[in-house]
Amino acid sequence: MVSKSGRTLLNLASLNRVISKRAFSNSKTLAAKQMTVRDALNSALDEEMTRDEKVFILGEEVAQYDGAYKVTRGLWKKYGDKRVIDTPITEMGFAGIATGAAMAGLRPVCEFMTFNFAMQAIDQIINSAAKTFYMSAGRVNVPIVFRGPNGAAAGVAAQHSQCYGAWYAHCPGLKVVSPYNSEDAKGLLKSAIRDPDPVVCLENEILYGVQYPMSDEALSSDFLLPIGKAKIERPGKHITLVAHSKAVETCLDAAKELAGKGIEAEVINLRSLRPIDIDTITKSVVKTNHLVSVEQGWPTCGIGAEILARLMESEVFYHLDQPAVRITGADVPMPYTQSLEVAALPRPADVVDAVKRLLKVK
Amino acid sequence: MLPACVRSICKKSIPANKALGLIARNGSGHTVGETQFETQPFKLHKLDEGPSTHVTLTRDEALNMYTQMHTIRRMETSAGNLYKEKIVRGFCHLYSGQEAVAVGIKHALRPHDAVITAYRAHGWTHIMGVPPFEVLSELTGRRTGCARGKGGSMHMYCKNFYGGNGIVGAQVPLGVGIALAAQYKGTDGVCVTLYGDGAANQGQVFEVYNMAKLWDVPCIFVCENNGYGMGTSSVRSSASTDYYTRGDYVPGIWVDGMDVLAVRQAARLAVNYCASGKGPIVIEVQTYRYSGHSMSDPGTSYRTREEVQEVRQTRDPITSFKEKIISHNLVTADEIKEIDAKIRTEVDEATKKAKAEKEIGIDELPADIYANNLEGDIRGVSIFQPLKHKRIGPAVNV
Ligand SMILES: Cc1ncc(C[n+]2csc(CCOP(=O)(O)OP(=O)(O)O)c2C)c(N)n1
Ligand SMILES: [Mg+2]
């Protein structure tokens, strides 16, 4: 229930801060329509509900309250009780109900107020949703989306500030997307809703209120982004920075700083964690010969650990001039203490430092 | 139109709390050592006998209860202000309106009884022994906080108080476990396990009702029914809002949670019941939260301002208690004024100090991850930034 800059639930005014400085400097994107990640998600839900009668939403506070973070704003008014359902605080129960409804042919979007609370329901997500298609030898589809805010929030301490990317990416049978900006959010959520398999959509609460440009294409109700494909956010030739969600921003900030030192970093926005787009990473490393992975989640068995292991297992290993390294959240539960919280998450300076070490520049 | 829960509170709003015994000789500064009150009747579930509605209250108890409730109220007002100043970050769930629950229950507990609650924990933390300065310092995230500023608003602990838990409902099994430990050790201690009307629907609550009853675990389940779980009223979340009956085979008591004396009566019965080996019991306390769910929720989209005002004016647990003890000459209005002033100074001082204090150093980022760290260095954000694990503690539970 927290949002940007540490203010909590529903503090919308403070959420709508415009991101401006970074990344979008050419005149074409400046002219594009700006949209918050929240509104992009909202339009994805709205469009898919209009398109397909079978799509419905359930979760805590999604209907009458318009969503704890207002992602479902207006949908209850538009689609009514049948299709936008407020549940009691019973994650295990409603995640199971949603999964059962998917088995019987509906297309539920199951919102978790945050993914911290999905831990109450993780058995249904993995044992029921992820494995049923396989166990039934392809007879029972589970076309469901589990979505909600994931990752570090601000000032909410250990139980409310954690990235579950690696947890879900670990499980065969699940697809996992982790959008960074508004186009990602809309395109990936729409694809997730249309996908025949269970998809976990890990949104970032801190980014909900941030505006990003939306191309005309992205504004269309046909806009889909393929699950499993990464995007090169910024091309470069000296080093590859690969990240997902908010860590993409950290990389873009670092890349900008590095550019001032003559280092051209290529920034890859993973978009999907499962499947992970190892081809795009490989091509980039063949070009740059260096890799740093960046994520907010913990290091052990994390997304970066997976990427590095895959590089080790393949030919691309021989293209690396230096060991690849991971930048991650510190290996500690999240403290409330403000100065410690800042130090527990990767900052652009940490990325810059690692890059300089790898490239042996001062 | 008020929800049923609130209407039922309001109906009983002018109870006939007549002094039965020692009427004061006069109203001009003389006080009596003790007096008697009559509480509203309790509702019972699978209990032959409920708490007595006759209450004896001593002057010392009255002073103490009033001081505690008023301290919580002042502290929460201060916490709310600190949040508005952006010094308290993240969540800030205030207990204002619910003070009589913590204070009434605490007055029925023995030193070896334990308590566990959810994230609405500031009041309970104080009542269980943490001075306002350490609560407020935890809120400001400073080193003088009862969790050194690492836990914040939702995670505070002290001896026999197990937090301060952020996952709705998850504290309920923990409470049964704490009670099981008392049973195992043979201390006759009980554990008061608190949860909200929203949390009352979590499946794990029902799992542990069953085990607690099967094994006669001395757990007092306390459902703090404040009418809402975030923006959802209890009638929209719960197929039955008679939370005191929802343990089915676990007996239950309903009590007016705005009356500190009634709460104490119910808790006393529950402590005796559990400590004598009869197994678990449920208490539903009907109460009200004045603020939004957390500070960022204005709390007005799912209820009316009038509803909040009406409870404040007719059922406030502190105002009603104050009037009661003054009109029965347990304390004088002047004494109350003095107490109020003292509390104000104390909390204001504590607030000032809690703002001025420092945060713990960065060396504590990797502190107390383990009681026995087997990992050597702890990894920071990269391989280039190793951190040294530390033990600080000390543990209060062993
Ligand atoms: C498992 C879980 N689900 C959801 C939440 C988000 N959340 C925090 S408090 C709350 C409402 C709880 O209401 P209630 O139990 O009535 O307690 P109250 O806030 O009224 O004290 C919700 C939904 C959470 N913290 N944990
Ligand atoms: Mg409640």
Automatic annotation (TrEMBL), chain A:
Top-level taxon: Eukaryota
SMART domains tied to this protein: Transket_pyr (SM00861)
Enzyme class: oxidoreductase
InterPro entries assigned to the protein according to its UniProt record, in alphabetical order: PDHB_mito-type, THDP-binding, Transketo_C/PFOR_II, Transketolase-like_Pyr-bd, Transketolase_C
Localization (cell): Mitochondrion
GO MF annotation: an example: metal ion binding
GO cellular component: mitochondrion
Keyword Transmembrane: no
Cross-referenced CDD domains: TPP_PYR_E1-PDHc-beta_like
Cofactor: thiamine diphosphate
Major subcellular location class: mitochondrion
Record's function text: The pyruvate dehydrogenase complex catalyzes the overall conversion of pyruvate to acetyl-CoA and CO2.
Protein name stated in the entry: Pyruvate dehydrogenase E1 component subunit beta
Annotated source species: Hypothenemus hampei
UniProtKB/TrEMBL annotation, chain B:
Signal peptide segment: none
InterPro entries found in the cross-reference section: DH_E1, PDH_E1_Alpha_Subunit, Pyrv_DH_E1_asu_subgrp-y, THDP-binding
EC numbers, comma separated: 1.2.4.1
Cofactors named for this entry: thiamine diphosphate
Domain (Dehydrogenase E1 component): residue spans on this chain: 68-360
Enzyme class, spelled out: oxidoreductase
Catalytic activity: N(6)-[(R)-lipoyl]-L-lysyl-[protein] + pyruvate + H(+) = N(6)-[(R)-S(8)-acetyldihydrolipoyl]-L-lysyl-[protein] + CO2
Keyword annotations of the record: Oxidoreductase, Pyruvate, Thiamine pyrophosphate, Transit peptide
An example molecular function term from Gene Ontology annotations: pyruvate dehydrogenase (acetyl-transferring) activity
Claim: Transferase is one of the keywords in the record: no
Function of the molecule: The pyruvate dehydrogenase complex catalyzes the overall conversion of pyruvate to acetyl-CoA and CO(2).
Protein name: Pyruvate dehydrogenase E1 component subunit alpha
Annotated organism of origin: Hypothenemus hampei
Lineage: Eukaryota, Metazoa, Ecdysozoa, Arthropoda, Hexapoda
